[in-house]
Write a structure and sequence with these properties.
Blueprint (H helix, E strand, L loop, with lengths): L1 H25 L12 H6 L10 H9 L8 H14 L3 H27 L2 H13 L4 H4 L5 H20 L8 H11 L8 H10 L15 H6 L2 H21 L3 H4 L3 H20 L8 E2 L7 H20 L5 H14 L11 E3 L8 H16 L3 H28 L3 H11 L4 H14 L2 H14 L4 H13 L3 H14 L4 H13 L3 H14 L5 H14 L3 H14 L4 H13 L3 H13 L5 H13 L3 H18 L2 H14 L1
Antiparallel strand pairs: 1-2
């Protein structure tokens, strides 16, 4: 009884330590911002989150892939956070950290039950909790799918540990947890094979000396439902990625390039696991410049390590299982089927490192045996390692504070990072520094001229500087590279409109509406409305703005556009309501204030009109918009 009580106290102490460690590392995320890298797509501009969180929303999440991903539980989790906290990035990231802490505790309990060795299990779970490679998965809102999948992965291991030794077990708990995890992220597809490896060690259900012995064939067959779940999830993932165009980059890369990059990535992950410095949010894919010679040596090293682990299977089976754990859980993300333009990503190691950590800790404990000084040395080394990793991870968390810090760091620690240059340009452009942004976009074009987003970004900067003809040429270049990307056509439509080419602008806007993704449809309708408004097609413009507001009721630009249209039609009372709503939602441009002044003036509210004209003049002067400033001043003089 006392031993059992002591054991429970020990488990609780480790669990509390893991939670405290996660809190220490990730406390800073409460003050972080959403990133312009996927957070806008997943949360800020996701129209689904604005809908009520009900059964209809749940069905939609399961039926419709969004932005190349079929991850319904992740969407529902983000939806719940939005319903509770609105657009509070710190609250979303606090949820990420809480899920990560829960996954760490459950992973410890699962490993302790599987191995019967709390010490190595605590080390492996501790490394999972505080390793700097895992910061990306926790400190980035868009990676909610990682921490949610990690939670269900740990539950699946714990459930399997409970049922594996039971005769004729159907593994219903593990199946349920795996199904939920696959609905969060399909990276758990290899889990059934991992469970077979765990049957070899530490469960000792298969292999020489196993008691009772279970054949490999039976170990595979009894997991039939798990393999079926993984197969369905893999098919859904490929379907969603192909439907969204995320696999288009892989079609351009020969198989030998993908194999070379995958092999080199394995050793890059091992290096970063041991020396986690110079970590970045994005590592550019080398494409054809990948070193075949280095890849050949890496492939040889991979074979040697695998052969060594296999040779040690009788004396130290944990190394074979740990190595297989690492390779299996990295497998879907190694880029053999290329998704996106990255060479690798820190988040891909989120679940993969645990097997190696467990193997290392198990070997250390076996070496220490009952020798007191060795045991003290192992405990000291483990403690120092985890403390050093926690401090390093806490610093890495600060890198993820906002878009500028993330990508300035990425540009500093990598070479030829076109995406980091583009992101820095976007951040500078958002702040109004178009000239500085242009330099970063131009560098992105220089590094990766075949990347359409680089051309679109450069065009955005040129348009912000008023160089619309140059902007149109850059938009055209980007659109040739990505003809079905709505955003490029929408931006080009605005630039064409600024040059007076409204016919071409209308064609671009209509095409963009046809090819827009769900997250882009409201913005596409707004641009179409602006073009139609310029052409004085008021009824059609009203309809476009109404469609935008049906998708995004909180879209200030749509309310403003509808207000402009109503005002042009002489419907000042209705226009005033729409313009006021746009201001409430954060719209505060000179054009909006000018229109509000016109609406107030038409309604005989001259004092209100003067206030709006004064603000319009100030906004226009600050933005360097001489024409609008002059209009506002002229209207003020007319009221005096």
């Amino acid at each position: 009884m006392r031993r059992a009580a002591d054991s429970r106290v020990g488990l609780l102490a480790v669990a509390a330590g893991l939670v405290a460690a996660v809190a220490f590392v990730y406390a800073g995320v409460l003050n972080h911002d959403f990133l312009s890298y996927d957070d806008d797509i997943y949360v800020v501009d996701n129209p689904s989150l604005r809908q009520p969180l009900d059964w209809s929303a749940a069905l939609h999440a399961f039926r419709e892939p969004y932005e190349t991903n079929w991850i319904p539980l992740t969407w529902l989790s983000l939806h719940l956070d939005y319903a509770l906290h609105g657009l509070d990035a710190g609250a979303f990231l606090a949820t990420n950290a809480a899920l990560h802490a829960a996954a760490s505790v459950l992973l410890f309990l699962a490993l302790a039950r599987l191995t019967g060795t709390p010490g190595p299990s605590a080390f492996a779970a501790g490394l999972f909790a505080v390793h700097p490679l895992h910061v990306e998965s926790v400190a980035w809102v868009a990676e909610r799918k990682d921490v949610l999948a990690g939670l269900f992965f740990s539950l699946a291991l714990l459930a399997y540990a409970r049922s594996a030794r039971a005769p004729r077990s159907l593994h219903l708990g593990a199946s349920t947890a795996l199904a939920a995890g696959l609905c969060a992220k399909q990276s758990l597809v290899p889990v059934p094979l991992l469970l077979v490896a765990l049957d070899f060690w530490p469960l000792c259900r298969i292999g020489a000396g196993a008691a009772p012995r279970v054949s490999l064939a039976r170990a595979l067959c009894e997991k039939g439902i798990l393999f079926a779940l993984s197969g369905v999830a893999a098919a859904l993932a490929v379907w969603a990625q192909r439907a969204g165009g995320a696999m288009a980059h892989g079609d351009l890369l020969p198989l030998d390039v993908r194999l070379a990059n995958a092999t080199l990535s394995i050793f890059a992950y091992l290096r970063d696991a041991i020396f986690p410095t110079g970590l970045a949010a994005f590592y550019p894919h080398p494409q054809q410049s990948v070193s075949r010679a280095a890849a050949s040596f890496a492939a040889l090293g991979l074979l040697v390590l695998t052969a060594l682990c296999f040779r040690l299977r009788a004396r130290a089976p944990w190394w074979l299982v740990g190595w297989l754990w690492f390779l299996l859980l990295l497998g879907p993300t190694l880029g053999l089927v290329q998704v996106g333009v990255q060479a690798r990503a820190d988040r891909y190691t989120y679940l993969a490192l645990t097997g190696l950590a467990l193997a290392l800790a198990t070997s250390a404990v076996r070496w220490a045996g009952a020798v007191p000084w060795r045991r003290r040395a192992v405990v000291a080394a483990a403690s120092i390692t985890l403390a050093a990793l926690a401090v390093t991870a806490r610093r890495q968390v600060e890198v993820w504070r906002n878009s500028e810090t993330v990508f300035a760091h990425a540009a500093a620690v990598t070479r030829g990072n076109f995406l980091a240059e583009h992101a820095l340009g976007s951040e500078l452009l958002r702040r109004g520094d178009a000239a500085a942004a242009e330099a970063h976009f131009a560098e992105a074009v220089r590094i990766r001229p075949e990347w359409p987003e680089a051309h679109f970004g450069l065009a955005d900067a040129l348009a912000a500087e008023g160089r619309f003809e140059e902007a149109v040429r850059s938009y055209e270049q980007g659109s040739r590279l990505a003809p079905n990307q709505a955003r490029g056509h929408l931006r080009m439509a605005r630039a064409l409109l600024a040059t007076g080419r409204s016919d071409e602008a209308l064609g671009r806007a209509r095409y963009a509406v046809r090819v827009a993704r769900p997250s882009e449809r409201a913005a596409a309708e707004v641009v179409l409305g602006a073009v139609l408004l310029e052409r004085k097609s008021f009824a059609a413009a009203d309809a476009a703005y109404a469609r935008a507001l049906a998708l995004r009721p909180d879209l200030a630009e749509a309310h403003a556009g509808r207000g402009f249209s109503l005002l042009a039609q002489g419907r000042a009372d209705e226009a005033a309501g729409e313009l006021a709503r746009a201001e409430e939602l954060g719209g505060d441009s000179a054009a909006l204030r000018l229109a509000q002044g016109d609406a107030a003036r038409s309604r005989g509210r001259l004092d209100e009109a003067r206030r709006h004209y004064v603000v319009a003049a100030e906004r226009a002067q600050a933005a360097g918009d001489a024409e609008t400033a002059a209009d506002a001043s002229q209207r003020l003089s007319e009221l005096r």
